[in-house]
Write a structure and sequence with these properties.
The chain is an alpha/beta fold. The protein is 32% helix and 23% strand. The chain has two domains: 3-175, Ribonuclease Z/Hydroxyacylglutathione hydrolase-like (Metallo-beta-lactamase, Chain A), CATH 3.60.15.10; 183-249, Arc Repressor Mutant, subunit A, CATH 1.10.10. The chain has helices spanning 35-45, 59-62, 65-72, 149-160, 177-198, 204-211, 220-236, and strands at residues 3-8, 17-23, 26-28, 51-53, 75-78, 90-91, 97-99, 104-109, 118-122, 127-131, 165-168, 174-175, 240-243, 246-249.
């Protein structure tokens, strides 16, 4: 049975914790860098941890990996494209089946938010552990150059085909319809970026100021990074282009 323990991490608001999952002998994303949380996780896990499996390399997912490895002797498994600050024992590839002793996890490469991002389907079910593909609180930042919107949308679509329920890294488990909402949200945000360009905004910061105006608690610097992913998407689909005076819409819009 899949079990979860949220551990406190230095993640982006509104999230304050990252979910550590256990299935059989495998722990997914032991994330906290803080000794008190690492000790709490170790006590919760008990005996029999043989494998540390990572969804991706971001700091709020890997902060406790080395401490757990040192305490248990568990191997570290991750996708070879993950830019980790430590070595791994096994490179997990798309489609790989991982026998945990209490169920098999099927690894699926789901980039777009991060290089090497993996999601894991519990074989024989339509339940997934999805890392930062979606969130139970807040949204997922797509930050170029690592973040790529078209790739992210494709990853959402790939998981949606085989999912009924998803277990994210931040917040509670969710019905798979959340994947549809994420796709719709990103297309809506792209449309807002187009409107901002049409109104005269010509760079990511100016677009962000228009698109996110009035939304409480928005960090406009981070919003501008997200807008950059949408501008890249518009360029790739032929609807906008950068120039000496900034971004402009093309006639194809």
């Amino acid at each position: 049975m899949l079990r979860v323990l949220p551990v406190r991490t230095p993640t982006l608001p509104p999230a304050t914790h990252t979910n550590a999952y256990r299935l059989g002998d495998t722990v997914i994303d032991p994330a906290s860098p803080w000794p008190d949380e690492q000790a709490r996780l170790l006590a919760w896990l008990g005996e029999g941890v043989r494998r540390i499996l990572l969804t991706h390399h971001h700091h709020d997912h890997v902060g406790g990996v080395e401490a757990l490895r040192d305490a248990t002797g568990a191997e570290i498994w991750a996708h070879p494209d993950s830019l980790l600050p430590f070595g791994i024992d096994h490179a997990v590839l798309d489609g790989e089946h991982i026998d945990t002793g209490e169920g098999v996890l099927v690894a699926v490469h789901t980039p777009g938010h991060a290089d090497g991002h993996l999601a894991f389907r519990i074989a024989g079910t339509r339940e997934w552990v999805v890392g930062d593909l979606v969130a139970g609180e807040g949204t997922i930042v797509i930050a170029p150059p690592e973040g790529h919107l078209a790739t992210y949308l494709a990853s959402l679509a790939r998981v949606r085909v085989e999912a009924d329920r998803v277990h994210p890294a931040h917040g509670p488990a969710l019905p798979a319809e959340v994947l549809d909402r994420y796709v719709a949200h990103r297309h809506h945000r792209t449309a807002q970026v187009v409107e901002a360009l049409a109104a005269g905004a010509s760079d990511a910061h100016a677009v962000a100021a228009r698109v996110y105006a009035g939304l409480p608690g928005v960090d406009l610097r981070l919003a501008a990074v997200q807008v950059g992913a949408h501008l890249q998407y518009l360029e790739e689909t032929g609807r906008a282009r950068p120039g000496a005076s900034g971004w402009t819409l093309t006639e194809q819009r």
